[in-house]
Specification:
Glutaredoxin, mainly alpha, 2 domains, 4 strands, single chain, Growth Hormone, Chain: A
Length: 568
C-alpha cells in the first residue's frame, strides 16, 4: 500500500457540510483576530503624535513601528502557552481563549487616553495592549490551521487550509475598509482627533459574533482519537524542543519556510504602506485605496496556490513565492519610487544630497533609550530632518568640531546645535531648521508631498488615482501574488510536518518566530537601516538575505509532505 493510499484510508469521514462549518468557523474567528491586529498598522502614523512626545519626528515614528512590532515579538510566548493547552486539553478550548483575549485588548486601545492627558502612561498602556494582542494571536493561527487540517480529507488539505490563509487577507481588508469608511464619513481632521478610535471600538461586536460561532464547534477527530487512546501529550515542551527528531523539524520549519514568509508577506502588505506614506509622501487615503484593491484581488490566490500544492506538491509552490519575491525586492521599490513620486526620484538624481559632519558629532539616530536630548547635535538635527523629509543622502567627514552642513546640488545649508537646550527649545530649534531645509530642498526640486492627492471619494476620483498610480499598484500586486504563493500552502505543510500529539506546540512556535520576529520587526528594521545609511532602499538587504537563506534551506532540506498521513 502506498503512502498516499494509506493516508486516504485513515482520513476522517467528514461530510462536506460539516467541513464547510469547520472552515467557516475557524476562518471567521481568524479574520476577526487579524482585523484586530491590523487596525493598529493602518492608523500607526496617526497615533504617533498622540502617544509619543519629546522625540524627534523620525525617532517617534520608529517608536510607533516598534510598538507595532511588540505585538509580534510576544507572539511566540503565546504560542508556547496556548500550544501546550491545545495539545493537552484540546484545540477548541485554546482558540476560544485566544479570541476573547485578543478582542478585549483591541477594544481597550480605542479607550486609551493620549500623552497630552496622562503623559508617559499613554505609551505604557499602549504597549501593554499590544503585548496582550500579540500573546493572544500566538495561539490563534496554529489552532485554526490544525483544526481545519485535522478535519480535511487527504488530497484536499491544501485547499481547505487555504481558507485560513485567506483570513489574514480578509482581516487586513476589513481593517482598511473600516478605517477608510470612518475617514470618508467624518473627515480627515476629525479622524486624526478622535475617529481613529472607532475601528478599535467596533471590534467588541465582532468579538461577540466570533465567540458565538466558535462555541458551536466540536473537538477535532485527530485529537479525539488521541484522547480515546490515552496518548495526549503531557510533555509537549520536552517532546517538541528537547528531542532531536522533533526539534530538527521545528528548526526546518523556521529556517526553510517561516522566516521567509515573515519578511515576504510583511514587505508586500505592510512595509509598502509605510514606504508610500513616510518616504514618498503619498497621502494616506490614496495608499489605503490602493492597498484595499491589492488585498481584494490577491485574496483568492491563497486558495488557488494552496489547491495547486495539493496537485503538484507543497515545495514547488513555496519556492515559487520565495524566488519571485527575491526578483522583486530592489527593482520593485525602485519602480514604486519613480511611479509614486517621480519628482522625488528626479530630484535625487539631479540634485544629490550630502551631509558633511564630524563623526564625533553624530549619534545613532535610532537609539531611543537616551530621550530627545540625545539627538540635539548639529549632525543629528541635519540627518533627522533629511530622514523625516524622505530624502536619501551620502555622508562625508567634516572638520573636527565644525557644525554639520548639508549640500543639496549646488546649495549648502549649515545645521544648528541644540545641545543644552530644554525639550521645548530643542523641538523649536528642529522645527525652525526643518523649515529652512525644506526651502532649500524645494528650490532644488524636492517635493513636499507626492502629486495628485485624493480630493473626495467620487468614482471619478478613485479612477484618477488608479490611472496616475497604476505603476505603484502593479508593483504592489506583484508583491502580493508572490506572498500568496508562499503563504497559501503553508498551513498544510506545517501541519503535515509535525506529529499529532505535539502539533499545536511544535507548529506554533516556528510560525510565530518567523512571522512575529522576522516579519513584524521588518518595517522598523528596514526603516532603521535606511535612516542610518541615508539611503531609502538599503534596508531591503534585510529581507533579501533572509529570503535567500530560507529558499536555500527549503530547496535542499525540506521534504515533500502532501502525501503524508497526519492521522497515523
Amino acid at each position: 500500500m502506498t503512502e498516499a493510499s494509506a493516508a486516504a484510508q485513515s482520513s476522517p469521514e467528514i461530510s462536506p457540510a460539516k467541513l464547510r462549518q469547520v472552515v467557516l468557523a475557524s476562518s471567521a474567528g481568524t479574520i476577526f483576530e487579524w482585523y484586530d491586529f491590523f487596525v493598529y498598522g493602518a492608523v500607526a502614523t496617526i497615533m504617533t503624535p498622540l502617544f509619543v512626545r519629546g522625540l524627534p519626528d523620525a525617532q517617534a515614528f520608529v517608536f510607533i513601528l516598534l510598538t507595532f512590532a511588540l505585538g509580534f515579538i510576544t507572539r511566540p510566548f503565546g504560542a508556547l502557552v496556548f500550544g501546550k493547552i491545545g495539545d493537552s486539553t484540546g484545540r477548541k478550548g485554546a482558540f476560544l481563549i485566544t479570541i476573547t483575549l485578543m478582542g478585549l485588548a483591541t477594544f481597550a486601545i480605542g479607550l486609551l487616553p493620549t500623552a497630552e492627558t496622562i503623559g508617559i502612561w499613554a505609551p505604557i498602556l499602549l504597549i501593554t495592549c499590544r503585548v496582550l494582542q500579540g500573546f493572544a494571536l500566538g495561539g490563534e493561527y496554529g489552532g485554526a490551521a490544525i483544526y481545519v487540517a485535522e478535519h480535511a480529507a487527504h488530497g484536499k488539505r491544501g485547499a481547505a487550509t487555504g481558507w485560513i490563509q485567506v483570513s489574514a487577507a480578509f482581516g487586513l481588508l476589513g481593517a482598511l475598509v473600516v478605517v477608510l469608511g470612518v475617514r470618508a464619513t467624518i473627515g480627515e481632521e476629525a479622524f486624526k482627533a478622535w475617529g481613529w478610535r472607532v475601528p478599535f471600538l467596533v471590534s467588541i461586536g465582532l468579538l461577540a459574533i466570533s465567540v458565538w460561532i466558535r462555541l458551536q464547534l466540536e473537538e477535532s477527530p485527530a485529537f479525539r482519537k488521541l484522547q480515546a487512546e490515552g496518548r495526549t501529550s503531557k510533555r509537549a515542551y520536552a517532546e517538541s524542543f528537547f528531542e532531536w527528531r522533533n526539534l530538527k523539524i521545528v528548526l526546518l520549519a523556521l529556517l526553510g519556510i517561516m522566516m521567509a514568509q515573515g519578511v515576504v508577506w510583511y514587505t508586500g502588505f505592510f512595509y509598502t504602506q509605510f514606504y508610500l506614506e513616510r518616504t514618498l509622501k503619498i497621502d494616506s487615503q490614496t495608499v489605503n485605496v490602493l492597498q484595499i484593491a491589492v488585498v481584494f484581488l490577491s485574496a483568492p490566490l491563497y486558495v488557488f496556490f494552496a489547491h495547486l500544492s495539493d496537485k503538484i506538491g507543497r515545495k514547488p509552490v513555496l519556492l515559487l513565492g520565495m524566488v519571485a519575491t527575491l526578483a522583486l525586492y530592489f527593482p520593485g521599490f525602485q519602480l514604486i519610487t519613480s511611479a509614486g513620486n517621480p519628482a522625488l526620484a528626479q530630484a535625487s538624481a539631479a540634485s544629490p544630497v550630502t551631509v558633511i559632519a564630524d563623526p564625533a558629532d553624530c549619534t545613532f539616530q535610532l537609539d531611543l533609550t537616551g530621550g530627545a536630548r540625545q539627538f540635539s547635535t548639529s549632525c543629528d538635527i541635519a540627518k533627522g530632518a533629511l530622514a523625516s523629509a524622505g530624502v536619501s543622502y551620502t555622508s562625508e567627514t567634516g572638520p573636527p568640531g565644525a557644525p554639520a552642513r548639508i549640500k543639496v546640488g549646488g546649495q549648502e545649508l549649515e545645521s544648528v546645535s541644540a545641545i543644552g537646550q530644554s525639550f521645548s527649545e530643542i523641538r523649536a530649534t528642529r522645527a525652525a531648521f526643518d523649515g529652512r531645509l525644506r526651502e532649500v530642498l524645494g528650490a532644488a526640486g524636492y517635493p513636499v508631498a507626492a502629486p495628485g492627492p485624493m480630493q473626495g471619494w467620487s468614482v471619478s476620483e478613485i479612477v484618477r488615482v488608479f490611472s496616475e498610480k497604476f505603476g505603484v499598484f502593479a508593483v504592489m500586486l506583484l508583491f502580493a501574488i508572490a506572498a500568496t504563493a508562499l503563504y497559501g500552502p503553508q498551513a498544510a505543510t506545517l501541519v503535515e510536518l509535525f506529529p499529532t500529539r505535539i502539533r499545536y506546540t511544535a507548529l506554533s512556535l516556528p510560525y510565530h518566530i518567523g512571522t512575529g520576529w522576522f516579519g513584524g520587526l521588518l518595517p522598523a528594521i528596514v526603516f532603521a537601516i535606511n535612516t542610518a545609511t541615508g539611503q531609502i532602499n538599503s534596508g531591503l538587504w534585510f529581507p533579501v538575505i533572509v529570503t535567500a537563506i530560507a529558499a536555500t534551506v527549503c530547496l535542499v532540506f525540506l521534504p515533500e509532505t502532501k502525501d503524508r498521513d497526519i492521522h497515523a
